[in-house]
Amino acid sequence: MIGQTFPLVKVSGTAYEMGYQHGQQAGALIQKYLIWIEKLTGKSRSELCQSARKFHPLIEKLSPRLIEEIKGLAKGADITFDEALLCQARGEAASVPPEGCTAFALKGSATANSITLAGQNQDLAPEYADVAILLHVCPSDERPRALIFTFAGQLGYAGMNQHGLAHFANALYDAPWQFGLPHYPIKRAVLEQDNLEDCLTIIKQNPTCSAGNMVFCFGNNEIADIEIRPDGFAQFTDTHPDSILHANHYLTPEFTPHETNSLADSCPRLDRMRDLIQEHWGHITVDTMKTILADHQDDPAAICRHGAENMISVSGYIAEPNKGLFHVRRGLGCTGTWTAYEV
Known about the structure:
Layout: E1 8-13, H1 15-41, H2 45-53, H3 56-62, H4 64-77, H5 81-89, E2 102-106, E3 117-124, E4 132-139, E5 146-151, E6 158-161, E7 166-171, H6 183-190, H7 196-205, E8 212-217, E9 223-229, E10 232-235, E11 243-246, H8 266-279, H9 286-292, E12 312-320, E13 325-330, E14 337-342
Parallel strand pairs: 1-4
Antiparallel strand pairs: 2-3, 2-11, 3-12, 4-5, 5-6, 6-7, 7-8, 8-9, 9-10, 12-13, 13-14
Helix pairs in contact: 1-4, 2-5, 3-4, 4-5
């Protein structure tokens, strides 16, 4: 029987020690994740590892401590270093099916008591839920604590740190793949920051190999959205300064010329999110967003996704930085179970 929460993996200490503890605690799931990557890509482990090895110098340039954590992960999980690298490059080691997701960031006049909220539904192939974990990192150096929803062995994904910085993501398309850094190490690196300027520096200095969108909130009640392509990035400003909503198509003037409607349901899904946010404007709480993330209009490609393009809403997240809480849902928006975690 599937539990109501994702496995919680708590690690602390140096970068190597955190990786080792992660590997020891989640070794069986890491092996399962590696098998899933093989199935997902249709490629052999050796071929995938050979591709992943090419990302080593780029990850090391981004963060030598991340490489140390990957080394510890390999040792703790009893896998090779290349296999541990593959966990950080999952979607970039070979072509993978599309991903969805509907994300939001709200503050000020949009919410009840002017609280700041950000989050998303995570729309993926259902098998991802079988290898998902919550990774709670407590570094012994100056880096902040963080709680990360990710997959066993993968060190970076959606999450929130002790400073109240949280980020979420939307897949974007219509960008020719070119060699660069996978998105997942960048997602981990920005969770070690406390302000937008430093996050933008990381994104600017580390070109990615594919497109994606990042939605941010910060402990100072700032919100932001960055569309990223291998050829650069652009900041999206929504129609109201207290609301940012994003799905899976380009919204910035810089990048909309690239859009070809690759995921046809993205525009109506975003329109539905806008209507629901406007309907509840000024009164939005965590519970309001839980309800919105369960919305079924346009099934099976609704905000709560039920299988269109082989994607379901395997999880959902709501960051509540003013309280240091990260709400995580396992399962569909309509039937899943929410749990609140202190970062």
